Amino acid sequence: MKPFQAAPFFGEPMSATPLPHKDTSQRPTQRPFYPYTDNGGTTLGISGSDFALLAGDTRSTNGYSINTRFDPKLFPLGSPDDDARLPITLEACAHRLSTLLYQKRFFPYQVQAMLAGIDADGKGALYSYDPAGSYKRDRVRAVGAAASLMMPFLDNQVSFNNQYRPKAEEGGGVGEQVARPKEDLSRDEVMRLVKDVFHGVTERHIEVGDELQVVVITKDGVEESFIPLKKD
Predict the structure, then answer these.
(1) Could you say which DSSP state residue 168 is in?
(2) Res 19: pLDDT
(3) Counting Cβ atoms within 10 Å, is residue 216 exposed (0-12), middle (13-18) or buried (19+)?
(4) Per-residue confidence band for 75, with pLDDT thresholds at 50, 70 and 90
(5) How many CB atoms lie within 10 A of CB 203?
(6) Residue 121 region, left (φ>0) first, then alpha (ψ -120 to 50), else beta?
(7) Which helix (H) or strand (E) holds 150?
(8) What is the sign, positive or negative, of the torsion defined by CA atoms of 52, 58, 59, 60?
């Protein structure tokens, strides 16, 4: 019978036998690859009865650095001067953009796209997309760095969510309320809201600012303008 042996103290080698040397020169080296970067900025779109509006700031950032103060985010697709034998409709263009994004779903274009224009009935239309190509027609949509700040305000002021009127105005009882009916805002009202929301966001978000690019699409064409925003 072997005599009792105490366990070794902390730091005392358990065995004097050296560990075998491991050759790591032939092991594969993992190199991370991430091609995407978040350049900040925010865009929004609103559709009206006979117009569609897109707006976006021109700031491009990388973390706490500003790459440039003028990087427009809104671009036209075609023009009335194009020599097109078969002009594409807005609905067909929306479906085509969805197809292009879906074809790259395994290595997607990391974008939050929106498409706006005038539909076949002469009404303003706005389509929003996810990076894989899923899309839907919206009344109002904001995407980008400050979208979470904008959307509650836009839902309330454009879509009239959580807006109520006294039912007495509709011939009901005193103290009762009814939801405000949906109605299209005028072009001037939309422009005022867009300016207010962007000026407010620049006070709260460092990735939004410098200039506001506004594009209004009607049956008569496209109007583009730039409005100064906060630069610090």
Answers:
(1) G
(2) 65
(3) buried
(4) very high
(5) 9
(6) alpha
(7) helix 147-157
(8) positive
- Using CA atoms, how far residue 37 sits from 8, 120, 203, in Å, is 53, 37, 24
Asked whether the CA dihedral 47, 182, 136, 148 is positive or negative, the reply is positive
Report pTM: 0.81
Secondary structure of residue 102 in the 3-state scheme: helix
How far lies 193's CA from each of 83, 101, 200, 215, in Å? 37, 31, 10, 14
Comparing CA positions, the residue from 127, 91, 120 lying closest to residue 219 is: 120
Q: How far apart are CA 175 and CA 167, in angstroms?
A: 7
CB contact set of 138 (below 8 Å; sequence gap of 6+): 45, 47, 126, 127, 128
Q: How far apart are CA 125 and CA 45, in angstroms?
A: 9
pLDDT at 167: 77
More confident site: 5 or 222: 222
pLDDT band at 82 (very low <50, low <70, confident <90, very high): low
Residue that has been written with the tokens 């997309």 in this structure:
129
What residues are paired with 222 via a beta bridge?
A: 217
17-48 in b/e form (b: 16+ CB < 10 A) is eeeeeeeeeeeeeeeeeeeeeebbbbbbbbbb
β-strands 211-218, 52-57: how paired?
antiparallel
Burial of 95 (0-12, 13-18, 19+ CB in 10 A): middle
51 vs 214: CA distance, rounded Å: 13
